[in-house]
Fold:
Amino acid sequence: MESVARTQTSAPRQVVRTVLHEALESKLGGEVVVRSTSVSGRIFVVARKVAWAVLNGPGALNFSSVLIRERVVSREDVEQVVAECRQSGGNFCETLVTWGLVPRDTMRDLLRRHMSEQLEALLSLTDAQAMFVPQPRTYSSQLTYGLDELIPPVAKPPTHPLKEESEVMANVKQTLEETLKIEGAFAACLADSKSGMCLGSVGGNPAFNIETAAAANTEVVRSKMKAMSMLGIKDRIEDILITLGEQYHLIRPLAGKEGLFLYVALHRNSANLAMARYKLSEVEKTLQV
Structure:
């Protein structure tokens, strides 16, 4: 049995997206539960596709209400189909198609648009928490969707074209591998604080995803920059240290490369913090982006 995954960070859109990706990678499938102070929602995943998404909160409309509002079917038709599904255990959308009330292609497009709106609303929550509950379930409908059919992919980070892309990526990889040689380091990445995306990563383990950690900590970088602006401090951030019980997380914004930062995680019991900061500054000098 796969474990239940719980995720909560200060970057809510990344959290919901990350947990949803985890659900879509699960062999079991299951349910993603999303909560905020104002609304909640559920996303059901079957056979690595999204089978249903629902938003609960003020002003939220269920799919049957949307069909009635757009005059696709009548209220009486909906009531009859709902009654039939309760009795037979059938799928609401498939029954509408089977009864000839809505053509399959039309149903697929209507359902896709509705679930896309539900997912976008869940992803845009400003104080979201998300939890994936692995659970095998039967689903008597072929109306399921790949994530790329429902929501646009995350925008790629802006390029910094001082070199050809292949050369840049090779240099990033080499630099990160050098970063991992710092005593105590076990994961490192280059990230963009504007988009939350990683441009490259090395290391990590099943209990620590460096890309997720970097995406979440982009908020830390942005908050510090905002604080400096509010205080009128005209200076650059050399590095930001986050000290945990067993780890150090070191963030180093790149000089002259606005928005980009190196992120390295170190085992506290084996790391020399002063040496790690020095070596990270040296590694930065070799990075060409």
Q: What stands out?
A: The two ends are 43 Å apart (CA to CA). The longest helix spans residues 210-231. Strands lie at 5-7, 30-35, 40-46, 49-56, 129-134, 185-192, 198-203, 240-243, 247-253, 260-267. Confidence is low (pLDDT under 50) at residues 1-10.
